[in-house]
Design goal:
mainly beta; 4-stranded antiparallel beta sheet; 171 residues; 5-stranded mixed beta sheet
Length: 171
């Protein structure tokens, strides 16, 4: 059953397919909502597409656009963390997992504007050790300190009941 929207509320153009475990970040200054990856169901295919909803909160007619990016692309995943860096106009992706239980600890960055904005993902190697591989972590980006905050999350394999739920925080 689909939710019922008021008749005067505009519906956005076609966008991402239905999914679970997508990573989401919001750019408040430009009113853009970013959606990366996810899965087509609990045991369905993992996704690696990136969508942006322009005019997400304030536009009279929000519109979806598929973002085409090159470079060191993130592998398909669900449960990743996604943060928006408003100072550098970029997305930062951390962790996630596949539907079959592989868990990631990688960090990827996508520049959205400026000279490096050929919409190219690049893998970032932190200067020191970081959080272990995990999915479902909460992430946020602090523009003042230029650091990604990672809190909590879980590691697999869930099906065997041996996953660990983290309560740690990383900067």
């Amino acid at each position: 059953m689909e939710p019922i929207a008021p008749a005067d509320q505009p519906k956005p153009a076609a966008g991402p397919s239905p999914r679970l475990g997508a990573a989401v970040a919001y750019d408040a200054a430009r009113d853009r909502l970013f959606v990366f990856g996810g899965g087509t169901g609990s045991m369905g295919a993992d996704l690696d597409d990136l969508w942006v909803l322009d005019g997400a909160a304030r536009a009279p007619q929000p519109s979806w656009k598929l973002v085409t990016a090159l470079g060191d692309l993130p592998s398909p995943r669900r449960g990743a963390g996604l943060a928006f860096d408003g100072r550098e106009d970029r997305l930062i992706l951390f962790g996630g997992r596949t539907g079959d239980g592989a868990v990631f600890d990688d960090v990827r960055v996508l520049a959205l504007a400026g000279p490096a904005a050929a919409s190219s993902w690049r893998k970032v190697e932190p200067l020191s050790s970081g959080p272990s591989a995990r999915f479902g972590a909460a992430v946020a980006y602090d523009t003042a300190s230029q650091r990604l905050l990672v809190y909590g999350g879980s590691t697999g394999p869930m099906a065997e009941g041996t996953n660990y739920v983290f309560s740690d925080a990383w900067l």
